[in-house]
């Protein structure tokens, strides 16, 4: 867009919005980005529409997002005259959400770009140059310096900086500003906790469980099913109810003791003990476990699942799934059924089943146990989850850090009555393009579920795989 925007801008003395030029990858990543700039104006180069048109075919997440963007644009432009488009289309608020109405406008590039001396020395004639050219033209039309190029492409932002353009990443999809602010699921009680919170202490027992009602300022920072611990004296609790500055806490069951083992597995540290309490609690429907490699996420989830599927019969079967993102080069198409295709991706499942399966009973006994476990554990692909409903299942979503928030929502909403969902992952090992620690679907659900009465989260910090694995996780 050239001087057209300046010519038709309404009441420039009254409206002085920032102007954002959107790159194609922003809309591919988040179709609702059109509605997230509130009172500011959005400018779309014609090259962005061209790239959207090329990417609309297929069944991938990107193709679905592109088609949604096209539908949004079609609704905005429906019935608008040429003059109305030149004036800028009024942007509504985010669809489906109540909030402050948007006063921003959407502008399309309606005229060819004038030659720009800054772009002439650059080699080639890539689509990036058209987007940069429009941003430079807007900067000349609006010399107040409030033109910003928004892109998730680092190299395009570098080019923009070289040309003197202000460029930013797209931040509206970030759950948190800093991953260090992510909810950990545990709270360290201070030494004087009982002096400051136990003046009106109530305690009682019910069905073998001990409860305390405490009051004090720290309670306002707690969340349901959060783990509380005190080092001296060593005591672990879990938050059961919160009402203002009053909370009901329960003494945790100690799964570090051999007589309380879960399928032969005992908790080796405090966080693992918290995790087993959450995984075995029938009142908790959603559990997320975060941690580095070797912290025991998969082993704990499987042990708890087998105990509740084969022993207590709480669930009919265990379903395990994960996104198939390779670490290195892809090995190509795999033969066989859905389960056979997923088997190479489920090495973690097989490794942990070797630990959980009893070793006694000879070769025949081990073979019978392996058959029993395989009949109760099903491996499913994410590609066929849409439209399904799981009832009385124990659903494990492995490598959840590689899922987008939208994919995570699709999976968790598959849960029917009696189903428990377990999300496992390490946000330091994200292999999906355009996802980061602050935009991962795993970070998203940890933050959204932390205040829910039937959800729980624990961040596992200590590696228990081996001293070699723990040293490698810290130093490499």
TrEMBL record:
GO molecular function: ATP binding
Domain PIN: 18-158
Keywords of the record: ATP-binding, Nucleotide-binding
SUPFAM superfamilies (alphabetical): P-loop containing nucleoside triphosphate hydrolases, PIN domain-like
Lineage: superkingdom: Bacteria
Residue ranges crossing the lipid bilayer per the database entry: none
GO cellular component, one term: cytosol
UniProt-listed CDD domains: PIN_VapC_PhoHL-ATPase
InterPro entries according to UniProt: P-loop_NTPase (IPR027417), PhoH (IPR003714), PhoH2-like (IPR051451), PIN-like_dom_sf (IPR029060), PIN_dom (IPR002716)
Gene3D superfamilies in UniProt: 5'-nuclease, P-loop containing nucleotide triphosphate hydrolases
Coiled-coil region(s): none
Family: Belongs to the PhoH family. In the N-terminal section; belongs to the PINc/VapC protein family.
Protein name: PhoH family protein
Source organism: Candidatus Competibacter denitrificans Run_A_D11
């Amino acid at each position: 867009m050239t001087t057209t925007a300046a010519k038709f801008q309404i009441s420039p003395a009254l409206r002085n919005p920032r102007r954002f030029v959107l790159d194609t990858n922003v809309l591919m990543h988040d179709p609702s980005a059109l509605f997230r700039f509130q009172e500011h104006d959005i400018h779309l180069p014609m090259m962005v529409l061209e790239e959207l048109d090329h990417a609309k075919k297929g069944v991938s997440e990107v193709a679905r997002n592109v088609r949604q963007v096209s539908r949004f644009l079609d609704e905005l432009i429906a019935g608008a005259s040429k003059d109305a488009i030149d004036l800028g289309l009024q942007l509504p608020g985010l669809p489906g959400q109540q909030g402050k109405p948007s006063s921003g406008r959407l502008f399309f590039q309606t005229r060819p770009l004038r030659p720009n001396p800054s772009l002439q020395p650059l080699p080639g004639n890539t689509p990036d140059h058209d987007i940069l050219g429009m941003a430079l033209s807007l900067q000349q039309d609006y010399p107040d310096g409030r033109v910003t190029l928004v892109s998730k492409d680092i190299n395009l932002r570098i080019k923009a900086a070289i040309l003197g353009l202000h460029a930013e990443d797209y931040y509206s999809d970030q759950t948190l500003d800093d991953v260090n602010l992510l909810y950990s699921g545990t709270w360290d009680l201070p030494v004087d906790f009982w002096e400051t919170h136990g003046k009106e202490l109530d305690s009682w027992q019910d069905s073998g469980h001990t409860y305390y009602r405490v009051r004090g300022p720290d309670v306002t920072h707690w969340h349901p099913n959060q783990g509380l611990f005190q080092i001296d004296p060593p005591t672990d609790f879990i938050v059961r109810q919160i009402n203002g500055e009053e909370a009901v806490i329960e003494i945790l069951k100690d799964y570090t003791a051999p007589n309380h083992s879960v399928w032969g597995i005992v908790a080796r540290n405090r966080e693992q003990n918290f995790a087993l309490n959450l995984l075995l609690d029938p009142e908790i429907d959603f559990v997320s476990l975060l941690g580095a490699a070797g912290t025991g996420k998969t082993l704990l989830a499987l042990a708890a699942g087998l105990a509740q599927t084969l022993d207590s019969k709480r669930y009919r079967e265990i379903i395990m799934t994960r996104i198939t993102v390779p670490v290195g080069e892809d090995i190509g198409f795999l033969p066989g059924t859905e389960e056979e295709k997923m088997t190479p991706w489920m090495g973690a499942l097989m490794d942990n089943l070797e630990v959980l399966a009893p070793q006694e009973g000879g070769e025949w006994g081990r073979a019978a146990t392996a058959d029993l476990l395989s009949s109760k554990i099903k491996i499913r692909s994410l590609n066929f989850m849409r439209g399904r409903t799981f009832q009385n299942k124990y659903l494990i979503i492995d490598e959840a850090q590689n899922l987008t928030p939208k994919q995570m929502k699709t999976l968790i909403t598959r849960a029917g009555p009696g189903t428990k969902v377990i999300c496992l992952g390490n946000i330091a090992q994200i292999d999906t393009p355009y996802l980061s620690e602050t935009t991962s679907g795993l970070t998203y659900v940890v933050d959204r579920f932390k205040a829910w009465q039937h959800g729980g989260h624990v961040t596992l910090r200590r590696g228990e795989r081996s001293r070699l694995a723990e040293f490698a996780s810290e130093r490499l």
